Amino acid sequence: MSTESKIYWGVGIMSVLLLVGTYFLPGKASREDDVPWHIEHPTPTTVRVFGLTLGEASTGEAEKRFKEEGIPSLFKSNGQLVAEVFFEQVELAGLRSKVVVTIAVPEAELKEMYERGLRMAAIGSGKKITMTPDDIARLRTLPISSLTYMPGVRVEEAMFLKRFGQPAMRIKEKKSGAVHWLYPQNGLDITLGEGEKPLLQFVPPKDFDRLLTPLKEGGETLA
After folding, report:
1. Residue 156: alpha-carbon gap to chain centroid
2. Domain boundaries, the chain
3. Residue 78: helix, strand or coil by DSSP?
4. Which tens digits make up the pLDDT trace of 3-34?
5. Which CA distances in Å does 194 have to 77, 87, 95?
6. Strands, E, within 11-136: which ranges?
7. How does 175-184 read in b/e, with b if 16+ C-beta sit within 10 Å?
8. What is the pLDDT of residues 77-122, one digit of tens each?
9. Residues with Cβ < 8 Å from 52, sequence gap 6 or more?
């Protein structure tokens, strides 16, 4: 690598580090709710993050908030159907990230969407179904049941401690080794893997047990 290339590479690394520091350490965002630690509770059992109240805000509202048209998909895995919308290039507080929202679709309606599917493709251990235009339009009107935020960079644990405090519980997955930091009061699960970018999943606090139960079954609680 030439000296000039090394200089540019070094500048690039420093730029990313400065951006992460600005985002996760004290400072001002372009919008107060552009950051994942700005968590509100409209009621004791609900949570609002990025300006979206889970269980109430629709996919259409999320598209307006993130200024991006989401990519809807229907998945079938282990006999379970899940409808999601993926946002690939969300820019919040100057940091480009990805967001996935899970949609609260009545079970009977999910099955009908599955049966009307236009195409089916194998993905991992499950299937991905391409929905009809009418079903996609319907999906945009339904409420978001959970939101997963994936920052575009790796983040040190110390930064999460600074912003969210000590988790109520830590659970380590036996299979993958990933560690989950759990904040039931905020409906938040931060997943940290060795050398991997973190995942921050938000659910309404009243639904936290549905997230916690499978973690306990497939992991071990850490001190």
Report:
1. 18
2. 3-222
3. coil
4. 343 333 333 333 333 334 445 544 444 688 89
5. 26, 25, 22
6. 39-40, 48-49, 52-53, 71-77, 80-92, 95-103, 119-123, 126-130
7. eeebbbbbbb
8. 888 999 999 999 999 888 889 999 999 999 999 999 999 999 989 8
9. 61, 62, 65, 144, 147
